[in-house]
Specification:
Number of helices: 9
Radius of gyration: 23 Å
CATH superfamily of the largest domain: NADH Oxidase
CATH architecture of the largest domain: 3-Layer(aba) Sandwich
Largest sheet: 4 strands, antiparallel
Strand order of the largest sheet: 5-6-8-7
Structural class: alpha+beta
Shape: elongated
CATH class of the largest domain: Alpha Beta
CATH topology of the largest domain: NADH Oxidase
Distance between the termini: 43 Å
Number of domains: 2
Number of strands: 8
Helix content: 25-40%
């Protein structure tokens, strides 16, 4: 919940001006708060010059608040390099992902923006090889079934699914996660929120010198009734995307050409 310390507050009005939902107002030199309109976005907390506003309880922890310099940022050249050098990695070495790096990746998901600050994303992070193998088997079985169902209405997609299924069963090819030591399944009530969550984690993955690949192919089989039940997916969520994460097995030395984005 949000609280305002009247002893610290100097009723400067900065929080009132920043609030997009009209939750705060000044009356008789006192900041008053209407919790019925608040989405707990925290803008008021972040702009308060006197640390008079706090959010705590109901899943929030005031101890997590950290102070940063507003102008403090990563040099543009480094951000640009990471964007231009990002590769969809489908070849990982055997080195396990360090727990400290995995913690940072999961933390990044926590701070990913969501519509109206609803924060209705969830992750399934798999690092155990046996669990990863079982997930792969389960998903491939569903991919085979989906491929059969698509034969009449969408033969091209059906052929793609069935070829993935055949390669796995006959040649033991992991065409989903490519043997990555970490698999992250992203669940959300919203495709957009889930995609933003994955992209935010992607930024941190790059920053920790790891590689990753977005695996959209895992979403449809993960959302079948059988998989939802087996993996206890909440009724109000669905798998938006998966991510294969690990240490690079190859070294990249340059960016590659890309087409210009049309400016409409």
């Amino acid at each position: 919940m949000l609280t305002i310390d009247k002893e610290l507050c100097i009723h400067c009005g900065t929080c009132v001006e920043e609030c997009s939902f009209g939750c705060l107002k000044i009356e008789d030199e006192v900041v008053k708060y209407d919790d019925r309109r608040c989405i707990t976005c925290g803008h008021c907390l972040a702009v308060c010059p006197k640390d008079a506003i706090m959010i705590d309880g109901d899943g929030y922890d005031v101890e997590e608040v950290q102070e940063f310099q507003f102008i403090e940022s990563t040099p543009v050249a480094l951000v640009r390099r990471d964007i231009m050098m990002r590769r969809s990695v489908r070849s990982f070495n055997d080195e396990p992902v360090e727990d400290s790096k995995l913690d940072l990746i999961v933390e990044a998901a926590k701070y990913a923006p969501t519509a109206k600050n609803c924060q209705k994303n969830a992750l399934k992070v798999i690092t155990d090889p046996d669990e990863a193998d079982q997930l792969l088997v389960d998903l491939m079985e569903q991919i085979g079934e989906i491929g059969k169902e698509k034969m009449r209405d969408n033969p091209a997609i059906a052929a793609f699914f069935l070829e993935k299924y055949r390669e796995f069963n006959e040649e033991k090819v992991d065409g989903l996660f490519y043997g990555a030591p970490v698999i992250i399944l992203v669940f959300s009530h919203s495709d957009i929120d889930g995609a933003i969550c994955a992209a935010t984690m992607g930024q941190m993955i790059e920053a920790t010198d790891l590689g990753f690949c977005y695996v959209l192919l895992a979403a449809e089989p993960m959302n079948t009734p059988q998989m939802r039940q087996k993996y206890n997916v909440p009724d109000d969520m669905h798998c938006v995307i998966a991510m294969a994460v690990g240490h690079y097995d190859a070294e990249y030395f340059c960016s590659v050409p890309r087409k210009d984005v049309p400016l409409l």
